[in-house]
Amino acid sequence: MTTTSSPSRDRDAVDPEVYLDDPRRHSLEIDLELRKGPAAFRWITFAMEQLIAAILVALIVSVSSNVIGRSLLNHSLPWADELARMLFIWLIFIGAAAAFVRYEHIAVDFMVRRLPPRAAYALYLLQHLLIIALMVVILWSGYLVMSRSTGATAILGVPWNLINASLVLCAAFITAVAVWRALQCIRLLRDPERSSTTPDAGA
């Protein structure tokens, strides 16, 4: 026995992809495939994603070699543990910056979807101003850490500042993107209808 859905039910059905995509956020998005957003941000994001892929491969090789050494050769590789920790730190911060650019961090947007355009852009502006303030604090803290760090790792002898630089670079890039999005919000607050006519504003 087969059942057929009524035309009215098909019309009322909501496409999940459409629901998850807030059209008022289009002017704030940076998309590599659609060439949306400043070109510099797109190229830096592309480079970060390639770096993330390389770090993942190196991390898998490092951890796997240590597991094989312990299991089959009964011999641990201390350098592999140290390398894995350093790679994981870089992976976290570079991944956080790339995810911020692509709007892939977890967010609760239940309220902003139901606000009028001006109120929504005002909320987006407040959001990015808070992000900028937080990133400035992280940048300053990272600078203090790097200015006082003179040592190196115990086994590989990698300078600690090379590891700490991942935090500073991540915060600097997120700050730059957040400033651009805040400026976009100010522009859209003046003319909310412009977002529907220029979905790739800022490119």
Automatic annotation (TrEMBL):
Q: Which UniProt keywords apply?
A: Cell inner membrane, Cell membrane, Membrane, Transmembrane, Transmembrane helix, Transport
User: Which spans of this chain does the record mark as coiled coil?
Assistant: none
Q: Which Gene Ontology biological process is one annotated for this entry?
A: C4-dicarboxylate transport
Q: Which GO terms describe its molecular function?
A: transmembrane transporter activity
Q: Which GO terms describe its cellular component?
A: plasma membrane
Role noted for this protein? Part of the tripartite ATP-independent periplasmic (TRAP) transport system.
Q: Name one Pfam family in it.
A: DctQ
Name-wise, this protein is: TRAP transporter small permease protein
Q: Where are the transmembrane segments?
A: 43-63, 83-101, 121-143, 163-183
Q: Where in the cell is it found?
A: Cell inner membrane
> How does this chain sit within the bilayer?
Multi-pass membrane protein
Family assignment from sequence similarity: Belongs to the TRAP transporter small permease family.
Residue span(s) of domain Tripartite ATP-independent periplasmic transporters DctQ component: 59-187
Q: Which InterPro entries match?
A: DctQ, TRAP_DctQ
Q: How does it assemble?
A: The complex comprises the extracytoplasmic solute receptor protein and the two transmembrane proteins.
